[in-house]
Structure formats: C-alpha cells, structure tokens
Amino acid sequence: YSNYMTATSNGLYITGQSNLIYNNRIKHNNYGLNIGTYMGGEPQYNIIVCNEICSNITYGIFLGDEKSDNNIILSNDVYGQQAGIYIVNGDKNIISGKNKIHNNDLIVASAGIRIAGTGNSNYITNNLIYSNQGHGIWLMDRSSFNLVRNNRIWANWNFGITFWSGDCRSNIIMNNLIERQGSYGLYIVNATNNIFTQNIIRNQSIGGGILSQNGKNNKAFKNIITNNYKGIMFSGGLPQQSLPAFLNNIYHNTDNIDNSSGNAFKISNNWWGSTASSNILRKMNLGAGIDFTPYRLFGPFDTSEGSDTTTPQIITGITKYQTNQVTCLRWNRSSAGDLDHYNMYVSSSPAFSNLSSGHLKVRTAQTDSVIPMAGRGYVHLTASDNYPVYTNESWYSTVTAFTNPHIICYPQYLSDYQTTRNRDDQVILAFQYINSSNYSMTNFAVSNRGNMQQGVDLDPAIKLYHDAGTIGVYNPGIDTFITNLFYSSFQNKWTNTRLSVTNKSRILVTMDILSSPTISRTFQVQIKTLQDTHSQPYTGSVPGPTVTIDDMVPVFAGNFSAELANGSVVLNWDHASDNVTPQAGMLYNIYKEPVSGSTIGVSTPAGSVTGNNTITLSGLGSGAHYFLIEAVDEMGNKTTNPKEASIVMGRDDLNALIVGPNPFKPTDNKIETGTLTGGITFSGLTSQVTIEIYTVNGILIDTLHEKDGDGIYNWVPEENMASGVYLARVSNDKGEKKVVKIMVIK
C-alpha cells in the first residue's frame, strides 16, 4: 500500500495469495508487478487496484505461473512498457474497472493487454486501451473462452484486437468501441469459433474494420462497421467458413468488402448503406465473387442486445385479377405475428428497386390491392413488421408483370403522400394522376364517404392544385391552382368537373374546415375519372384514405421521473392518451428548464422521441436540472398539462469537497456538531465516488460508495466508534483523490 518502487529487477514480486496491492507507484524497473514467475507460489486471489505502473523495461503487470488465477486488476494506470498487462497461462482473472492501458511502445510486437499460453476464461471489461505501439489486445496461442466486453480501444499503432493461432478459440468480443487504429480494428489469423458482436468498429482510415485470414467458424453479427478504408477484408482460406458475417451495418467504408482470398462466397443479410444493388457493388472489391443477397431493405439493423432483427417471410401466392379494366393483386397473408403492412413496389423495369425515383411505392394493410400505374409495368411485394424505428422488411417477392389502361387517377398511400392537416385548418390529400397517352380532357368527381357536414364542418368548395412543391404539402406560389370542385349536397353523390391536366401530374385536393369539432370526424374522398371520347371509354374509381379531423389534445395522467445512470439522466414516463393517435405515433418533446415551475417556451427541445416512453440525456453537468415533457399527436395537437421532473447531479471534480460536521461530537446534544443518527455528510462529490475511512495507523474501518449521482453521501459511524482522528480518502472514477481528516469527540 502506497509504496514508490523504482530501479529494481522486479518492481514488486508476489508469489502468495489473497494480497491487496493498492495505490503504489512502480516505475523504471525491469518488471513492474511480477506475479508468480520463476519461484512458483501459485499466486491467486490477489487484488491489484489503483496503482500507477509505468516506464518499466518489459511488462507492467506480469502473471506468469500455471496457476496465476482468479486475480482482480482494477483501476490501474499502466503505461510505457513493452506490454501493459501480460498473462501467460492464467485463468479467470478480471481486468476491469477502467484500467488505463496506454503508450506501451517499446517494440512493435507489444500490446496493451496480451493473453498467451493457456490463458482461459479471463474477463476484460470497461478498460481504456489506447496509443500502444503494437496491439490494443492480443489473444494468442491457446487463449480461449475469454470475454472482452465494453472496452474503448483506440489509436493503437497496429491492430485494436488481434487473434493469432488456430487454438485461439471460443472467445467472445462484444460491445467494444474500436476506432482509429493504425491498421485494422480486428485482426483474425487462423482463429476458430470466436464470436464478434455488437461492436462499433470505425474510422480505421489506413487499414479497415476487420481483416480475416484463414480463420474457421468465427461469427460476426450485429456489429457497426463504418468509415473505414476497408469494411471487412478476406485474405486466404474460405471466407464463408472463416467469418460468416450477418445482421451487420457495413456502410460508408471506401470498400465495404474486399475479397482477395481467391474464393467466392456468400455474405447476406447485412445493411450496406443502400438498397440498390448497383450502389452496393460499387463498394465491393469482389475478387472471385461475392453473393450479398438477400440484404437489408429498410435502413440499418438495431444492433442492441435482444433487438428484433427477424424479417417477415417472403410474400407468396401472388395472383392477378381485374376490376374495371384495372389490374389488381391478391397474395397470401403473412404469418409474422408482428406484421404491420405490405409494400407494393411498382416500376417500368422488372429489376427490383425501392429508391425514391423510378418506382412507385404503395403501402397497404390488406392482402389485395389495385396496381396504381398506367400502361405496362412490374410489381414486387414485401412485408414489414411493426418494430419501431428499425422496421424489418422482408426480401422482395417474385416479379409480376401487368398492363393497365392509359388513364388512372388514384390516391397515394400514407407511406409516401401524407394526408395532413395544417395550421390553417385545411385538410390536404395528395393524389397522383397519370395520363400515359397524353389525353388532355378528363372528368374529375368527388364524393363523401364519412360524417362531415356541408357548410358546418367543410367549406362548400374543394380545390385542386398541381403539386409542384413539397410532396403532399400545399406551397403557395408554387402549387398551381386548377379549379374548384363544387357539389350540392356532399352526400355520396358525384359532382363532375371537366378540366385539363398535363401528362403525369401530382394533384393536391384541399378542403377548408369551417368549425373546430369537439369530437373526431372522418370522411373519405373518391376520385373518379372519365376518359374522353378520343379513346376507348373507361370509367373507374379508387377510394382514398380515410381522413380524421382531430382538435383534441393528448393528456398526461401518469408519472414522469428522472434517474441517474452512468453520468447521464434517464427520463421515464407513462404514455399520454389521445382519442386518435396511437402510442406508437405519439411524439414526446423534452425541454430542459432553468428553474422549477417553468412553462414551455420557444426553446429547442433537449431531446425528442416518437412512440417510446424513455430517453437518455448526456453531458448535462453538475447541479439541479429541471425537465418538462410535452406530448404531440399526429395532428399536431400539443398537451396542455406538461409534466415536470427534476434531478441533482454531482460536480465535475472534487475541488468543492466539504465534510461535516467536523469535528463530530455526537454526544453533546447539539445539532450543529452532529448526532448519532444524523452522522457525517460528504458533499461536493462527483457522481461516482468511493470513500474509505482509515485510522491514523492506516487500518481500513469502512468503505462507502456514492452511486446515486447527487454528489452527497451521509455516513453514520458505528455507535461504539472511539474518539480520535480518522482519515477519509475520497476517490472518483476520473482518478481524482482527496484525503480529509475527521475528528471524532465523544
């Protein structure tokens, strides 16, 4: 405890068991901390904590005995050696608690942490490993069954994590942030049956994310591999056996895949940053060839633990039929229990595309639909589940060809053209009008299919515009007025208006609301087209989406709370209720206010989330924080009863540490000098603090932990605690330490 060791052969040499090695400075020796070499002794169950081990010639911490097992290495600062921590044949050791292992740079073959021999079942977690000249972590020989988790590994000269040897097997590498290495984030050579999951591997600008060379049966899934020179590079062996890669987000790399192995293989079910196969291929150096289908169609995967990455099955049983000369499709219902809707991709090409240009997307909850495109075309179908944000979409179906009449007018579904209501109480529906034969004269008609009343809820005129601006939004001065559609009763009767529309136009239908109904009202509009006499007569109509008029605000009736977690604030609330908008569609805005009792002003929200009832806010700093939550429904109505939550966070450092009452006189019956029940208060703490109470002889009598993040801890000493001077050693997760004398007088 608290020794300074320098210029020796072995800075500190341990052969026994159950030692506490704490708060030492070990510097300029051959070895820094040498456990169990040369003389045996089976060093086990030692705790190595809060030491500074630096600038030693060979290793910082060396565990080298066949039974160097079950040791705990916590919160040390290890730098400037050939290797920071080197374990040979040691099992079940824990290297954790934000050890800082950095700048170990004497030789290129060095490493921050090196596991060799039969080093098995070691637990390496929550460490900072950076700027080592060789590797961040190096697993070699027969190192197996080790868990490497939640580490931040950056700026090492060679590789972030290296696996070297066919007997290096069954290790789990997960939830690590691996970035800015000099070469590759992960280097896998001949290793077997290892798992790589939920890692973020990014910004290796010279090398790449993963280099796999002659491995076997390793698996990489649910990783984010982005902004590297190479995403994954395969060199030698059979790539499909060496590293099956699936459910990963591999995108924005110079080459997402580089196959120099000379072998063709399949790497499917990944997100490549695009849904167009031509774009995906541009970022693949195929070599002997890669089959990357099927791939992710709807945005990136949710790579968090336990997330839903299962897509609905491919749609089957597709049949064609006709209604009023228009082709319709019918298909088998999906068996997915969380199915939300089906997607119909319509284009003039048999090749699949779900890009925003060159195709038409129709969304429907039904298992049959009209094909809303004039002329000849092709259709692919997919199914989507209801997983929020990271929707899972099935691979596309077999292609179906069709031929439709030349003029069709149809409503576009809500996935592309929204049914909206703006601030001026105007309902807008967007329609697509296609006239593939350039016939200029068409009769339009509108009919009501709901409970809206003429002259009470709606203005008598329905207006048509060319939709030239933002799709589905009325843009004054940009969208050109066409005509008014008048009607006499608005009760399920057609009112025909003959007008001229250019080939292939987008149409806006707008209706002004006269009243603000106290209940939800709905209506449905049908558009009917009558092809003029220049061609074969055709009459058809397609129902539009149902429109809901809603002025009722969402209401909070439950709880809104704040709690601390790892230096961040987690806000939780009960969902607001609304007469129309479901929970999945409710938007929540979080505002940070300076004082309690504030009202929501014009400030920008500190965070927003849709459909969820929790959010995490980081970087808030110390002191009291007040939050207001506002619910906004899909019609833009905002809650009138926002909820407030508050929390106090610890300081950023220990400079304002106060301990009192001091002296502590619990028996003099004065509140200001302390009581047996009130104890001693430590204030001005950071969010995560350990307080150790010692006698002046260095005997540890109590250990306290401030974890709730409010920066205050109340210690109630034992009633029989003797009078005298005690030392309180206060340390935090940033490496700061303060020692305070406390006098107890009874």
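Next protein, fold it too.
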Amino acid sequence: MHASIRAALIAAVATAALAACGGGSGSGSDSTGSASGSGGDGSGSGLPDGGAYQAGPGPQGGAQLYADFRAGRKLVLHQRELNAVTPANMRDRLASMESTLTAFDGVFLKLPNSTDAVTRATLLKASTIASDLEPLYALRPTKLKYNFAVMTVQNDLDPFDDWSVALANVKSLAKVARDAGLVGIVVDDESLAGLRVNYPYDFKNGNTKTEAEYRTQTQTIGRQIMQTITAEFPDAVVVVLRGPAGAEPKSSPSLVNCVSRDIASAAPGGSCGANPASALGSFFAGFVEASSARTLLVDGGVDYGLRTAEQFAGSADWRRNGIASATTASEFIPETLRAAWPTAVKVAFGVRELDGARGNGLPSDPALFAATVAAALRTTDAFVWASFDLVDLTKAAATQPFLKATVDAKALAASTSATLAPTTPGSGTGLMGQFFSQVDESELAQTIVDATIDNIWSGTGPGQSILSGQNDNFSVVWSGYLEAPATGTYAIFGTTDDGMQITIGDTLVVDAFYYQGPTEHAGSIDLVAGQRYPVKIRYFQGGGETEAHFAWQPPGGAKVAVPTQFMYPYK
C-alpha cells in the first residue's frame, strides 16, 4: 500500500477513535462552564470502560476557580521522583502545607496508578483514576486551590500506531480530573525517553517514512490529545512541559534549552542548529491547532538556565512570537497556525532548585533562587512552577531556606519597592555570575555570587565555579547593580582575554567583544552618590590565556578593582 494512503487510513482510524471517545462533543459541560461545578454523576456514563466511578464534587467555587487562576500569576509546586506529591499526600498534610507553603497557589499531582499509564495501549479505568484522586474530594483548601493532574508521555506507541486506547485514557483522565475540581492537566513530555521525537532513531518506521510524514502524524497525535481533553474539560489549563522552542534550529541557546546542539549548523551568534527532535515541535503544534478560547494552552518552559529579567523576557518573546514568525519559518509550525500562535500560546517558566541549565546536582543559592522566581513571575503570562529534586517542601518547616525564598520572590514580584538586597549603603556582596560551559552563553553550568571580578584563569579555568579546569571555550555573564559611593565621573576599566562588554544602566561603557590577548579597555560614565545602577558584564574565552578584570576609578580616587560592597547581585 502506498505510504500516503496508509497514513491517511491510519489518521482516519485515529479520528474515528477520537469521535468514539466523545472528541469535539463538549460532553459534560454547558457553554458557560457552570456545569463543571457540579461534579460527575458517578455512573461513568459515556466513558470508554463503561464502568461506574466515584465522581468528585467539581471545582471549588464553581467555574470561578478557572477565572481566578487566569486572573493572576500563580506559583505552583512541582516535586519530582520520590518527593512527588500525590492526592493522598495533600489530604494527609494539607493543614501543615497551607501553613508553610504560603507562597504557593497549587501543586502538580502525581496519580500513583494513573500518571504513567495514560498514554499506553492498555485501557485505564476511570474508576482507577478516581481512586487516585478521591483523597481530594473532601478537601477545601484555602490557599492550595489550583492543582493539576500529571500525565507522562510514554514511548510505547509510535505516532503511526493505533492511539485509540490511549485517547480513551486521556478522555477518562480529563473527565475525572474535572470532576475532582482540578484546574488542569500537565502533559509531561520533559523526558526525551518518553515521547518519540528523534528522527529516525525513535521511530518504528524511520527507515520507510520521511521526517515530514512523522512530523505531520505527531502533530495529529498532539491535536487529538488536546481535542480529547477539551471535549471533557473545556476550561482546562493544559500545560505541555517541554514546549517546541528547544527543537527549533533557529532558537537561541541562551534563551532556551536546545534539545541537542549541532554547532556545525548553528547560525553565527549562536543558535540550536540542526535538530533531530523536530517532532517535539510538531507535537505542540497539534495542541495549538486544537486550542479553543476557553482552554488555556501553556508552553511549560523547561529552560532552567534563565536567571535575569532580560533572559526571561527574551525567552518569552521568542516562544510566543519569534518562533512562529514568517521570518523564522519554522518547519513544524504550519503557516495556518502562525497568526494564531501568539494569542493561543501562554508562556510559563519552570524554575529548579538544582542549579545549572540541566541540573548540575548542586542546589541553587536560595537568594539567587528567589531572584530567579521573582523575575519569572514578573514575565509569565500564565504561571511559574517551582521544581524541587532535593527537598520535600511538603514536610519542611517555614524556616527552610527555599520556602523563605519563595515568599521573598512573591513579595518582590508583586511590588515595585520590595528588594532582596540590603538597603544599607555599601552593603553589597558581589555580582551574580552565570558560568556557561559554551563560548556563546549557552549551557549554564553554575550560578554564584561573585565577590570580585579580578581573575587570571590561564591554565586553570574559573576556579570559583564548577568549570574549574576548563581553560577554553566558556563564557560568563556577571549582572546585578552597581552602587556609586560618590557623585561624579567614573573611569571604568575592563581588562580581558578574550572578549568583554560592560554596560551600566543603558550605556555600553566598554565594548571589546572579540578575540584578543590580555588588553585593558576603558570608558567613563557619570554616576550619582547612593544610587544603584543595573550593570551587565559579558565575557567569553576562546583559547590561550584567560583573564577578566572589572575596575573603576571613582572621582578623586585611585584605580581599584570594583569593591565588593558596591556590587549587588539582585535588586
């Protein structure tokens, strides 16, 4: 049989299966969403397994719950592996969680018998899902109200396999989750061991079907999952954890986590380059294709290397606008979706307590974590999820450093006057230093507070960081605030091998971003005593000798390395 005919037949079968599951019918809710507040009928009527299940009470406060979630920028807890939060954990710990997790508005919930079973070819009974969620039914949280069911994407099924059973499972999950009073569903495709995306290696028919055929079929699967969710749960917040940007060759590695890098095909100035995981983008495009005005579709944002407001803003703009533009002409975003993309896609951010772009095993500095969460909250148009691997916050005391950090972050994000830095003049601790394992400010390795920038690293690499020993091909961005101890004109010096740029406020004071031996560059700027100015220092090292120095000469003073007490890592 001709491949195109076979693909069409399989797509028709999958569409028929979706229709049998109630796809596109909107069953279970009226046009206003108010019926969602009444819970299910408990009969399992219309569900694929045909069995009865104990339905939940529906959303607390009715459809207003969905509107409230959309009204503000929420912070949601995501704990991994052994510390994953289950509905039973919430039932048993709700009182203590609400007294300590005061900055959080909800939780990603792992369903013990269901989370990992949804996208498999074995029928998952609605009663099984209900038994996982039943511990929530009697709860009436006052703070942790906006909760999500997590469904992981497994690799059991090839896109050209029969997905009818998996779609039936998605239907059951959506209906039971709605009845249980959740606000949405998290499609966890973060692990590349799950969803088949790498062509041709992941696919059963990679030797007979083209990459374009697999992109088309993977988009179909994404569309059918989204249609199935919205048919049963029209007001759902649908979060796809790993959005499409990491699979786009033109994405900047300083703004997104590239699924893989191909330096040889990367554009000048840095891009992800050719990527075998383009089906990841097609999967998300299917969700966009099936999105509706009532459903909130969220690109989850697993770009854990972002730290500054500038980085978050750049990432959000690219994921919302740039990736779908005619200029980018992404191969996995059909032209028919480009115009709708910026309004159909909301941007969330994941912020991880493990440092580094991919998690280096070291915990982040809690104060830097707070500044990162605050920057993410100020930028998102959806919500921020804080991800924890090392600590179980549901059992932690209120004094736990990361709990305090989330409280500080919420306050900082909500106020123009709040600050994490001490307000006493001359009390700085240094600048935030982001150390990248690549020369183009990609692959964040570690973030520290650097007390001074007065380094000779030749032969050693940056010894104060995890990159100690890497003498060549790395980069650093120092940022924060510079405080002027006196009013007047300051001479600013950057001594560098290789490149350095120093920007204070809106002024590029030193511009020497090119390969060179150890060279001192100077500029000047007028500053006012007591004021703190944003400062950003970009540095890269290609090979050979390695130096980076940041010095100033205050009015009437001597030339010195900028003292620690006049540098602040965050606002």
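About the second fold: The CA atoms of residues 267 and 465 lie 28 Å apart.
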